[in-house]
Give the backbone structure.
Amino acid sequence: MDLKEEVDPYNLDTLTTLSQYRAYQSRFPVQVTEELDVKMEVLAEELASEVASGRKYNVYSDKQNAAFFYFHRIKLWRTAPLLARFRLK
């Protein structure tokens, strides 16, 4: 009687991809976004105080819209090459 081993190809592919990611992680330097993170925290606090004061949560100033837009773009651009490289679309 032969033993039939059940292998989940998705799990195997995921584990392989994660090990490749760890191996190549040091090749892609991470840009420092500490200043942007601090600005985002300040804006989040401003929004929280505006919401508490009764202002609508979906009304943002131009400064806040620009900061959120660039914050998300930078975060997505930094991970996009890695995801494309390891086929994690």
Q: What stands out?
A: The chain is about 65% helix and 0% strand. The first helix runs from residue 9 to 24.
